[in-house]
Amino acid sequence: MIPSPVYLDAATAAPLHPVARQALLAALDDGWTDPDRLYAPARRARQLLDAAREATAEALGVRPDELSFTPGGTSAAHTAVLGGLLGRQRTGPVLVHSAIEHSAVLHAAEQHVARAGTAVEVPVDRFGRLDLDGWSRAVAGPGVALAALIAASHEVGTVQPVEGAAAACADSGVPLYVDAAQAVGRMPVPAGWSVLSASARKWGGPPGVGLLVVRKGTRWESPWPADEHESGRTPGAVNLPAVVAAAASLRAVTADAAAQAARLSPLVDRIRARVAAEVPDVEVVGDPERRLPHLVTFSCLYVDGEALLHALDRRGFAVSSGSSCTSSTLRPSHVLEAMGVLSHGNVRVSLHAGNTEADVERFLAELPEIVADLREQAGVAGL
Amino acid sequence: MPDPTGGGNAPGHRPDEVLDCLGQRCPLPVIALARRLPELPVGAVIRVLADDPAAAVDIPAWCRMRSQEFLGAAPGPAYDVRRTH
Question: Which residues of B touch A340 (CB under 8 A)?
């Protein structure tokens, strides 16, 4: 019998929230016209966009005119980094970032370096926590235009010391960009940042909606050709039905975030404890306490990450992995690499509102045998 | 410039054994190391030749998990490990 699938990869994309589905369907009927036109249906679309912006800004605690919708989280991150650097290019060419930024931020940094800019990487410890002293020294250096820090690691769940990092940036007059993709909708985002990005599909909105927030007074210049949409921060008309759905979902999940965190965090604790106790030769990684409520990562010694993902998939479990054995690139996850923890046999479990205690129990019941079988097939049992 | 003794971060130390894992993908170099090291005497140094980038992370991590001594990377790319127990 094929077991019913258990989706445990919310950090990639949470299932569409029921409220988002309703809003999406309604907005497909009411919001397909261009909000910038002057006829009645366009005014209706304009109202929907304005309401979505206000609701989203309220959930984030920012002003509506500080918020732009982008074609996705990746594009928001690229625009945040490149715009922050461009806005302060007279100050200097240096981008400071943590070693565990999302690849979208690192790819923007690569482009900046390829165009004669400089990137300074600040390391993390074994738990994936930012070296705050190193960060403070780096942002105090000459010619720093922008600093980038992920609010919480999407791969290992470690929450970063954003307030301390922001204080160091303020001391040096450097704007801080925070990639809040895993935090928005799950936990309050600490204050002190100048630029922020997020992604709707992480909170149960549809794919293809990102958020870019640029606080008033921040020197920031769009890296894109001039465009009148979204305060000139990102080109093109927004996908209005998706934006409306994303805003509706964010409002719903923000209202429920504390309750979900209180429900999911003990399940993650249970996974951390039981995997360590019941699967031999496993390394559970990330900060056990200062962490996201819904995400846990571990690595199984001597196990091929791709084989493990396929075996879990056959038993009905959808998870993610930072093992290089699973990716088209040869390199293992740069996050695991920066932490100095085992990179093969890596599994990331990230829970969503639809996951039950029974889902977690079934995963925990089946995992030890799955790992043992793979080790036996590879002839490495008892090594 | 490569150390003529090939010692990497273990100055002057010649490995007692060289394990050729070139061309192998993770986790094979770590498995080969785990199989071979217990067969060597305590104190012996094994050099794992491995060009899979994951080995640079996984061999030190394995040494930490198994309480073996990671001596460092050597030219190759290669990694030196001393059996401590």
Answer: 57, 60-61
Chain A residue whose CA is closest to B35: A383
Do the chains contact at A340 and B60, CB–CB below 8 Å? yes
Q: How many CA atoms lie within 13 A of B77 on its CB side?
A: 14
Active site residue B21: no
Give A214-233 pLDDT, tens digit per residue: 999 999 999 999 999 999 99
- Interface pTM (ipTM) of the complex? 0.89
With an 8 Å Cβ cutoff, are A301 and B35 in contact?
Answer: no
Within an 8 Å CB–CB cutoff, is residue B60 touching chain A?
Answer: yes
Q: With helix as H, strand as E and coil as C, how does chain A read?
A: CCCCCEECECCCCCCCCHHHHHHHHHHHHHCCCCCCCCCHHHHHHHHHHHHHHHHHHHHHCCCHHHEEEECCHHHHHHHHHHHHHHHCCCCCCEEEEECCCCHHHHHHHHHHHHCCCEEEEECECCCCCECHHHHHHHHCCCCEEEEEEECECCCCCEECCHHHHHHHHHHHCCCEEEECCCCCCCCCCCCCCCEEEEEHHHHCCCCCCEEEEECCCCCCCCCCCCCCCHHHCCCCCCCHHHHHHHHHHHHHHHHHHHHHHHHHHHHHHHHHHHHHHHCCCEEEECCCCCECCCEEEEEECCCCHHHHHHHHHHCCEECECCCHHHCCCCCCCHHHHHHCCCCCCEEEEECCCCCCHHHHHHHHHHHHHHHHHHHHHCCCCCC
Q: Which of B30, B57, B61 minimises the CB distance to A302?
A: B30
pLDDT per residue as tens digits for the range A99-121: 999 999 999 999 999 999 999 99
Residue B46 carries which DSSP code? Answer: E
Among A183, A325, A339, A367, the active-site one is A325
Question: What does the pLDDT look like over B35-52, one tens digit per residue?
Answer: 999 999 999 999 999 999
Q: Active site residue: B18, B26, B32, B54, which one? A: B26
Q: Which of B54, B56, B65 is opposite residue A283, by nearest beta carbon? A: B65
User: CB of B58 within 8 Å of any CB in chain A?
Assistant: yes
Chain A neighbors of B62, CB-CB under 8 A: 301, 342
Task: Give the nearest chain B residue to A336 (CA atoms).
Answer: B57
Position A54: which residue type? E
Which of A245, A231, A178 lies closest to A68, judged by CA?
A231
